[in-house]
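Practice problem 4.
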């Protein structure tokens, strides 16, 4: 049985803020979105250490990298207000579907 895909308005490259967990309050850019697992990879958030074996042309050792964070634990970051905001979708007159900030109604996608 296949897992259901998580529906989200977040995209790769969006600036987000973590709203819960050990990294609460940290901001970063989304590097990867996994709808199947319902997670996002945010730069410099949820850092973990991994012990790696030497590969061809790559040295082994302890490597620090980002681990996935559940989508429900991050919010889109609004630069103007300096807070996390909810996102919605809206259909424009020209037929395009764009993402908007729920509070202000400001369009994100141009």
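Answer key:
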């Amino acid at each position: 049985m296949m897992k259901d895909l998580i529906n989200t308005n977040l995209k790769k490259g969006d600036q987000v803020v973590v709203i819960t967990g050990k990294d609460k309050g940290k901001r970063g850019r989304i590097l990867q979105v996994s709808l199947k697992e319902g997670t996002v990879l945010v730069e410099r958030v949820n850092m973990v250490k991994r012990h790696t074996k030497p590969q061809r042309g790559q040295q082994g050792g302890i490597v620090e990298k980002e681990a996935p964070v559940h989508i429900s634990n991050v919010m889109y970051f609004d630069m103007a207000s300096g807070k996390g905001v909810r996102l919605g979708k809206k259909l424009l007159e020209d037929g395009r579907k764009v993402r908007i900030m729920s509070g202000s109604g400001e369009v994100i996608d141009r």
